[in-house]
Design the sequence.
């Protein structure tokens, strides 16, 4: 068992170094090219193991701060779920003094993740995004979905209002506005 853990730990160590130091590595653009560095102490595999321990089964090396270096203070062994929630494009929300991934909040509060995402896209506050109450379906004023638009029939207060008037989907209205087709556009 120890041989397998040692081998897996060595693979993680090698891959970390390749991503950060080898410009020919396919992932270099997301690591070394972004300035992600490796603690010089970790040039020695033994020092890496001394700081991190052997890689536990089912876990991979994770940087706590995605913009930070590979160091003892910024690394941990993490599950695939923890890794997925710790990416540059992760949505972190601060609520009740704690910052967590949006999925974590949804699980903790019993909110449908897709409902929370839609509320966020509509420009709702964090309190509204994480509310367990039903909220009005109209987008808040000033949100991307509530901006006035011009149509061949004149101005409308939102894409949704124009879609309803013309019997189109909001997605189709959005396409027409983006393309500026025959009088469609932002007001």
Sequence:
């Amino acid at each position: 068992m120890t041989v397998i853990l040692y081998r897996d730990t060595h693979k993680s160590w090698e891959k970390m170094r390749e991503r950060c130091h080898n410009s020919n590595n396919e992932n270099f653009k997301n690591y070394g090219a972004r300035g992600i560095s490796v603690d010089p102490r970790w040039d020695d595999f033994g020092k890496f193991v001394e700081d991190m321990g052997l890689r536990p089964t089912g876990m991979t090396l994770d940087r706590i701060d995605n913009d930070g270096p590979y160091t003892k203070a910024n690394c941990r062994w993490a599950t695939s779920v923890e890794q997925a929630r710790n990416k540059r494009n992760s949505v972190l929300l601060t609520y009740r003094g704690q910052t967590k991934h949006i999925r974590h909040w949804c699980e903790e509060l019993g909110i449908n993740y897709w409902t929370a995402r839609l509320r966020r896209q509509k420009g709702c506050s964090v309190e509204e995004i994480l509310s367990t109450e039903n909220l009005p379906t109209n987008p808040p004023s000033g949100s991307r979905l509530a901006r006035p638009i011009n149509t061949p029939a004149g101005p409308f207060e939102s894409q949704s209002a124009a879609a309803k008037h013309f019997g189109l989907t909001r997605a189709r209205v959005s396409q027409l506005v983006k393309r500026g087709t025959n009088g469609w556009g932002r007001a």
User: Anything to note?
Assistant: The helical segments are 2-21, 45-52, 80-84, 102-109, 113-121, 126-129, 159-166, 170-179. The CA atoms of residues 56 and 101 lie 24 Å apart. The chain has three domains: 2-84, 92-129, 147-186. Strands lie at 60-63, 75-78, 92-95, 98-101, 149-151, 154-156, 185-186.
